[in-house]
Amino acid sequence: MSMKMLSLEDDQRFALMKFRRQVVDILKPEHDDYYLVRWLRARNWNPEAAEKMLRDSMKFRERWNTDEIAKWPTPQILLDYSPHGVSGYDKEGSPIIIIPFAGFDIWGLLHSVSRADIVRMTMQALEGYMQQAYEQSKKTGNPNSRQFIVVFDMDNFNLKQYIWRPASEVVISLIKMYEANYPEILKCCYIINTPKVFAFAYNMVKKFLGEYTIDKIRIYKPDRTKWLPAILERCDADQLPAYFGGTQTDPDGNPKCEMKICWGGKVPKELYTSKEDSFNNNLTFTETEIRKGGRLKLTFDCEDAGCFLKWEFRTFDHDIKFGVKCVNKKTEESVIEVPLKRVSSHQVDESGFITCQPGCTYHVLFDNSYSYFKTKKIRYSVLMTAPLNDEEQTMAPIAVTEEETSPADGGTAED
Questions:
Q1: Least reliable range by pLDDT among 35-44, 282-291, 355-364
Q2: Fold of 74-268
Q3: Which one-letter DSSP state was computed for residue 5?
Q4: Which of 382, 272, 378 is nearest to 315 (CA)?
Q5: Residues 39, 395: Cα–Cα separation, whole Å
Q6: Where does residue 177 rank: exposed (0-12), middle (13-18), buried (19+ CB within 10 A)?
Q7: Which of 88, 100, 151, 177 is deepest in the core (most CB within 10 A)?
């Protein structure tokens, strides 16, 4: 998509040309002008700020292997209980994504899969929708087809489960991931059938949304006469489920179009993963205590490309701070891979992984320096896998350090 097809002011064209020169080393053949404009718009046409945003996102995609996320085998429970789907296309050819949000049982999912699985599932869905939108733009010849229309149905929304800290942490982390890595893919978001408590929930997450996202959000109470005409301004009725005022139904007459849209629902308790079963029996776990004011640091060396740093842990009765830092051996430049923050690992098991760079040392930190009174008991497995061609091999940490600090010191991942 060239600049000729984009309606840009002269200063915006100059910003685009400058931005392209600055990031030419990381661009791929499919990264056209429209792709670059997304990042510029997200940073108010500041090429330097857009460059930082794009480079940070490229690092994120490398860590999560996002380019291959379509190949990730999504757990069946996420396929069955994650509410979303495409009902059709708006008048410009953009996908219409329907999200019956009340069917998102975050409590049940977090007791059945890991947080990392939910993040990967969200990335997989976004990447799939972006590819679908890209194919639409080639058919329509309209770059606006690359954006989404999203309809959030908040009917029967239950705020209670989102007051639970692990649930709110997941939602906020997903919003942050979206804002940092998927700018300007949203054309318009209709949040419909909102109950009174929604205002409280929205105010909690609004501060994590960029202005360019907030400006595209339209919020409606449970009044179909208000929200349906607004949606129909952009979308024809035959592209919407009959349940939402359109004319679509499944072949059996189902107005919810459940053959296209997963409505989620309550995750059965028999699908919950028990505390013991949730831990991979193929991993070796270490159980220890981190004294009040203390920290546990694990250090790994990465010599070869294709290695992953993986972790899985839980604490007993109390939370802990967790973070990962990467240090380049030659330049001594450090990068925070996982920001040091408190995690509710006493409520939900923590697990995740990052892609490692050769010639770097990785420092994994469990930090209890903020606790004046409580010693934390932890059970963990942290390992660096060998390159994929050396299957079944793992590398143990080269050093394990236990430190004691004053809670007032407030240790950070940069220490």
A1: 282-291
A2: Phosphatidylinositol Transfer Protein Sec14p (3.40.525)
A3: G
A4: 378
A5: 38
A6: middle
A7: 100
79-84 long-range contacts (CB < 8 A, ≥24 apart) are 79/262, 80/262, 81/105, 81/108, 81/109, 81/262, 81/264, 81/265, 81/267, 82/109, 82/121, 82/125, 82/262, 82/264, 83/261, 83/262, 83/263, 83/264, 83/265, 84/125, 84/261, 84/262
Whether the Cβ atoms of residue 38 and residue 13 lie closer than 8 Å to each other: no
Domain ranges in the chain? Answer: 3-64, 74-268, 286-403
Question: What tokens does 265 get?
Answer: 């629902």
Which residue type is seen at 397? Answer: P
What is d(CA 320, CA 374) in angstroms, rounded to the nearest whole number? 11
Distance CA 161, CA 105 (A): 8
Nearest to 255 by CA among 82, 80, 87: 87
CATH: 3.40.50.300, 2.60.120.680, 3.20.20.140, 3.30.160.20. Which one for 286-403? 2.60.120.680
DSSP of 117-186:
HHHHHHHHHHHHHHHHHHHHHHHH--GGGGSEEEEEE-TT--SHHHHSHHHHHHHHHHHHHHHHH-TT-E
Q: 41-77: string of b/e by CB count within 10 Å (b at 16+)?
A: ebbebebeebbebbeebbeebebbbbeebeeeebbeb
Top-tier CATH class for 3-64: mainly alpha
CB atoms within 10 A of CB 274: 8
Instruction: Give Cα 123 to chain centroid, integer Å.
Output: 6
Quote the tokens at residue 329.
């051996």
Q: How far is CA 1 from CA 29, 131, 148, 176, in A?
A: 12, 15, 18, 28
Q: In whole angstroms, what separates CA 224 from the centre of its chain?
A: 31
> By CB neighbour count within 10 A (0-12 exposed, 13-18 middle, 19+ buried), where does 223 fall?
exposed
Q: For residue 100, which of 225, 241, 231, 205 has the smallest C-alpha distance? A: 241
Report the amino acid identity of residue 5: M
pTM over 0.85: no
> Could you give the CA distance from residue 58 to residue 42 in angstroms, rounded to a whole number?
16
Torsion region of 75: left, alpha or beta (phi above 0 gives left; psi -120 to 50 gives alpha): beta
Using the predicted structure, report yes or no on whether residue 274 has a pLDDT greater than 90.
no
The residue count for the chain? 415
Q: Which of 114, 120, 118 is nearest to 60 (CA)?
A: 120
- Strand ranges (E), 36-110: 85-89, 95-100
Query: Which tens digit of pLDDT belongs to each residue from 285-297?
Result: 889 999 999 999 9
